[in-house]
Design a protein that fits this description.
- With 345 residues, the chain is mainly alpha-helical.
- The protein has 13 helices and two strands, in the order αααβαααααααααβα.
Length: 345
């Protein structure tokens, strides 16, 4: 006989009807999905949609992380921009004006020395080993007496300073023109450009030597340096004219380029003729001591010097609108900055 347990309800309470097990299961299954999701959100703080997508809290957290990443990246870029060195231009001058001053300075100084020495030191500047009659003193004579020698040396020092960078500017300028010529002529023309640079530098050095070593102090050395100056000067003129003929062959020239080439040829012809006259009268003065031979020698010497100065003065037509500047900044930045600017030849 099976024994059953019975529960006696409290006094005054009606007995509860028993609930079947399958009824409880049906009640759980009928519970809405939103209620389950609500319970899940209250328990774990997440809300999963019916498609199984990311949670709202996770999305909010990812947005915050993305904003922080963007803020950090922006801050780093600003910091790099502040740390990156900027380009500073410390000096900007017209290259045309620099060339004009450089070319005219020795010419004006030479004229000043000639006038002052001829007026105030006539006997000193006309003294020669032949002791014959002369009326025109040589350049070495008027720049070898005091105080003209100091004025001339100071002027040549100021003249030589810009001449050295100008020589390299010309080299780069000529190399930029190589794209205009046929490829077969490029090696020969490049060699000619290098030769012009070397001759120009030797001429500048010889000019300094003949200036600071006067004929009164050391005549043999002064004479050899003067010969070096003459040879390099004439070779430089000839090579420059030849180079211009190669670079501008079959090219339409501007008015300034035509003026430059024309005067270069004229001044070179004057230098050649003056050199021939100088050699003739130097021989007459040195070996025969003819009257006025030294004056004619000095006259042709002045022509050579003036022709040389004016030949270099033609740079005003070669570089009519360029500028010279001193720039501070990283090399890569400078190349990028200069590369972004239009280039004019």
């Amino acid at each position: 006989m099976q024994k059953t347990n019975t529960t006696t309800p409290p006094t005054g309470a009606s007995p509860a009807a028993p609930v079947p097990a399958d009824s409880v299961a049906n009640t759980l299954m009928a519970t809405p999905t939103s209620a389950i999701a609500s319970n899940a959100r209250s328990n774990c703080g997440e809300c999963i949609d019916s498609s199984g997508g990311p949670t709202y809290a996770a999305s909010s957290k990812q947005q915050e992380q993305q904003q922080q990443h963007e803020t950090t990246s922006s801050f780093k870029q600003q910091q790099l921009q502040h740390e990156q060195p900027t380009i500073a231009i410390h000096y900007l001058a017209s290259f045309h004006e620099i060339c004009v001053v450089t070319a005219l300075l020795p010419l004006i100084t030479l004229f000043t020395c000639f006038v002052t020495a001829y007026v105030f030191q006539y006997d000193d500047v006309h003294e020669t080993h032949c002791r014959v009659y002369n009326i025109v003193p040589s350049i070495s004579a008027i720049t070898g007496v005091s105080p003209q020698r100091y004025f001339w040396r100071f002027s040549i020092a100021l003249h030589i300073g810009p001449r050295i960078p100008i020589a390299f500017v010309y080299k780069n300028y000529y190399r930029a023109q190589l794209a205009r010529i046929a490829p077969a002529l490029v090696p020969k023309t490049s060699w000619l450009i290098t030769l012009i640079l070397v001759l120009n530098c030797i001429e500048i050095a010889a000019l300094g030597g003949v200036t600071y070593i006067s004929n009164r102090e050391n005549y043999p050395v002064h004479e050899r340096i003067f010969i070096t100056f003459m040879i390099c000067s004439l070779c430089y003129m000839l090579a420059t004219i030849k180079l211009n003929d190669i670079l501008y062959a079959r090219q339409t020239l501007t008015a300034q380029q035509r003026q430059s080439i024309k005067w270069k040829k004229i001044l070179f012809a004057v230098s050649i003729l003056s050199t021939m006259g100088l050699l003739v009268f130097f021989a007459k003065h040195r070996f025969y001591c003819h009257d006025l031979a030294f004056s004619w020698f000095a006259f042709f010497e002045y022509l050579i010097a003036i022709a040389n100065m004016l030949f270099h003065f033609t740079i005003i037509w070669d570089f009519p609108s360029q500028f010279m500047m001193i720039v501070q900044g990283p090399r890569d930045n400078l190349m990028q900055y200069l590369g972004a600017k239009p280039k004019t030849n």
